Amino acid sequence: MTEITLHHYDLSPFSEKIRLALGHKDLDWRSVKVEAVPPRPLLDVLTGGYRRVPVLQIGADVYCDTEVIFRALERVKPTPSLYPTGEGLSKALSLWWDRATWKPAIGVLVDYIGEHLPEEFLRDRKEHYLGYDISKDAMAPQMPAYVQQMTAFAAWLDDMLGEQPYLTGDALSAADLTCYHSLWLLRANCGAEAIDSRLRLSTRLTDWMDRVAGIGHGTSTEMTSDDAIAAAKAATPVDGFDADDDPSGLHFGQRVTVTPDDNARVPVTGQIVAADAQEIVLARDTDEAGLIHIHFPRAGFEALPA
Fold this sequence. Notes:
The chain has helices spanning 13-24, 41-47, 66-76, 87-113, 119-129, 136-139, 143-161, 174-190, 192-198, 203-213, 225-234; strands at residues 4-8, 28-33, 55-58, 61-64, 219-222, 255-260, 268-275, 279-286, 290-297, 301-305.
């Protein structure tokens, strides 16, 4: 099997859920650390300019967004599955959690550590990523609302758990990794005791977090961005996903743009080489890395004729 490479940075909660997915599947992987703030010129070669992190690379196949990364890992190693009770509930719960908790979680985070965030990070998130100011002073007026929202959502997770060990049943799923990550971000950076008290996290919920954390990250080896480019150039796209069933009538060979529909709205342009209702793949030919196939999920993205 071609090496699995994850482009990520330590503080990224979305990277944490993929690191845990790699641990869940007991996979060996190469770790390429990228900057939290662009530019990331070598990563842009692989992604066509997509600016969110993490990005998964398997040879000359590149996966953008955690949902399609999960799907790729299922193809690489189906067992243990990230969807033990089926995809629908886990995917719906994951999409809701990511979007509903992102802003309130940032609000709580900056209340504790906002003064330590670099100015360039704050400026980038305002001007190029989120579209709003996440500095401590800017978020402060809404702090009661952010705490209220996170407390309510955490209570919903507690109720979902009931007497079962994981959110969708007896086995860990992608939903657990997603719903874990923003709480992990807060507890890891603001102090577990402080967050547990402020958000009224139950023992049942923190025990669940301990079970998820216990999965670990698998076995990783450091790799440079230059080496990742070289690996892509030495490979050809070989992912097993192959479909021509776009629900909107897009077709093979058509030039399209794919853009996130919520934030970091940087379009990636390429030619369609595979598409169905869940995934679309664009081909891009690059001088630095040769032919690349870039994979995106359909939920949360807009694929439109270029």
